[in-house]
Amino acid sequence: MKEVRDNARKLMKGFCRVCPVCDGKACAGEVPGMGGIGTGSAFMRNVTSLREVTLNMRLLHDVTDPDPSTSILGINLSMPVMAAPIGGVSFNMGGSMEENEYVDAVLGGCQDAGVIGCTGDGVPEFIHKSAFDGITQLTGHGIPFIKPWEGDEFEEKLDMAAKTGCSVMGMDIDAAGLITLRLMGRPVSPKTPEQLKDVVELVHGKGLKFILKGVMDPEEAVTAAEAGVDGIVVSNHGGRVLDHTPGAAEVLTDIAEEVKGDVVIMADGGVRDGFDVLKMVALGADCVLIGRPFCYAAIGGGREGVAKYLESVMAQLKQSMVLTGCQDIQSVGLNILHDAY
Q: Which domains does the chain have, with CATH numbers?
């Protein structure tokens, strides 16, 4: 992984420093790019809020070979991890890798590791085309995310997504107001509860399950559940759309208290390793999305780099499960945390 990171640092020069600790400090305000919007506070809070949650070490038990596997929305996973939907390699990551190569590396590396990758969306046609082509090539093993476009664009892209063979698709409503889209003259917007219900009906009408990404408030989580979504992602879009938001870890437990069991809860923000994965699950997530580390792994090492990164996450997750006494993902709860929100 050191070689992968070193290579990514060279290839992403001017767009990402691939810092030893990816915490948003060095890249504050660099959007487009890999940074957080404005002061970078929202990006930084994702990392620091999760870091502030600590694990209780417990060793008087019989857990020696934990099982981190799970099933999310009918998809079997070797561990509760997915690659978050990220697109725009050319204007966010330096352009050393073509969009289709990046998509293939992330989706393929995830498949090799027994998990699944999500794909992003954007203004240039090659972003969603690369995403849909990549999922199609893997016979549907991927989750396409479509932005909350205005007009007919959402339905048109939904039709294309359904043809990939995927069983689940999502909408990253946290992209509303994204600078890169506004600069390209293609704004995206929030949705009313009624509009969200219409979107859910459209997706379900295609025979797909639906994930809403960008929920940071318990009341909105309830509204999303009432609208019929199958899953939500607790996310502030990597701190790239609204400055001064809390980190995902800070709001996750309150959201889980409201909708756990009604919808699948995913969380995205500041997750860097397997220890962070376990903490997010303990805070209430059924599955965890990881963003920026997949960029470094894919740019620096291609499909093999992604698989190697996931191999390290798996090792760390299993180690942390042994050292906290968790035999399986279902046994992970707030009791393994020393300091929880």
A: 70-336 (3.20.20.70)
